[in-house]
Amino acid sequence: LPADLLRLSRSPAPKPGTGIVHLGLGAFFRAHGALYIAQAMAASGGDWGIAGVSLKRPDQRDRLAPQGFAYTALELHPECRTARTVEVLTDVLVAPEDPEAVVALMADAGVKIVTLTVTEKGYCHQPATGRLDRAHPDILADLADPDRPVSAIGFLVAALARRRAAGIPPFTVLTCDNLPDNGHLVKGVVLELAGLVEPALAEWIAAEARFPSTMVDRIVPATTPEDLDRVAEIIGRRDESPVLHEPFRQWVVEDDFVGNARPDLATAGVELVADVAPYELMKLRCLNGTHSALAYLGYLAGHETIADTIADPAFSRFADRVWTDEIVPGLTPPPGTDLAAYTTALKARYANPAIRHRTWQIAMDGSQKLPQRILSQLAEGFAAGRPMSGLILAVAAWMTYVGGTDLFGKPIDVRDPLGPRLRAALDGAPDSATKVAALLAFREIFPASLAGNETFRTSLVEAHAGLGRHGARHMAEVSHA
Ligand code: CS2
Q1: Could you tell me if the CB of 201 is within 6 A of ligand 1?
Q2: Which atom of ligand 1 is nearest to 178's Cα?
Q3: Looking at residue 12, what is its pLDDT?
Q4: Tens of pLDDT, residues 89-105
Q5: Which CA distances in Å does 168 have to 110, 144, 340?
Q6: Is any atom of ligand 1 closer than 6 Å to the C-beta of 288?
């Protein structure tokens, strides 16, 4: 099918000024927030160009700079595709090369919003409590040299300090990561770090800055080298950094910005609401919860992608039952939302064969994801007397996965900040009971009340042993028997 090329900027008009700095320039933000912002600017104008910041590596800047920071967003429907050229990035900075340049840019009066996609672990918090991890190496580095920060939180604090000193109002901090109550969470860690640097700074931030919560949704698999060839074939030229995404998108934003300064997001389809919580919980549990469950189980069953996993009848039925019996009964639907229709649509999104979202990719950083995606609802489900066998099986699959060897004896490339510690805890353990006990002892992941729940522990041991004996497919099939 012919590609439809759409230019989102007002080009060849001059580039817009930079009104937004984005920390953590991965594929997700370029396929989600950046597209909404480009569309809002195309419709309503404003200087909302985005300067991206890579917090670790230079590769993204090195790929985007030679193309003037423009890139292709390829939308993949099951039967057709649409390519768009996105020209909303004004620059890309690499923080470790020149942290001062990043702080100076964020402190510029023209910058009104700092958006973030730094993944769960980028908030340097303890997943079980949501508080700042004061022993985190990046936070220790931020405290040792606050003007040359390392973490995203350190950059926010340093730039806010500089704005305060210069008499410039703070920016709005707009987090776009999959964490519950994400605005509140980022505000908490920023205030805690600022308080350690200078208590008066924390007071000023608490009074003047804004941290709206958001729910973000679009499935955006990591771009592969094969994708680059595919995009080149479609658009007829080489793009070194395209993003590939599904058609669906949703962005729900709490409408609370410093001085009301923001792009005209509503024109682009962003839902501006007073309370994001019901949207966030729906999405985190229905989507991210089953995504993680299908990632661990699917991986252990030998499936490479979510589309492959959901095409397997055993996992298709498993997902249906987890939604119907375990997740949806614990949710309050957002205004005007039918949760049964929501999960049916979700299943079709998972099944999109054009989206190759690897189970291995979603399985990353499980220690940072499980608490809000699965564990919080387990505790609630037990309290309400709901059977939670599917989600328990998902936790058992994660426990198997982080052991580093799959059910066929092949090594797993486990990526997780706690990976080595999890592995070490499992290595000496002779059987499922000891392995489960060793992992339940991780207080950063399992709150004491959940870890101490006998029903939970015995069901986990059974599920863990069952995975070893019968495999993931069989266990998914019998999990709701
Ligand atoms: C996924 C998410 O990688 C993951 O953990 O569950 O990135 C997911 O694709 C997005 O949240 C969808 O909006």
Answers
A1: no
A2: 11
A3: 53
A4: 999 999 999 999 999 99
A5: 10, 25, 47
A6: yes
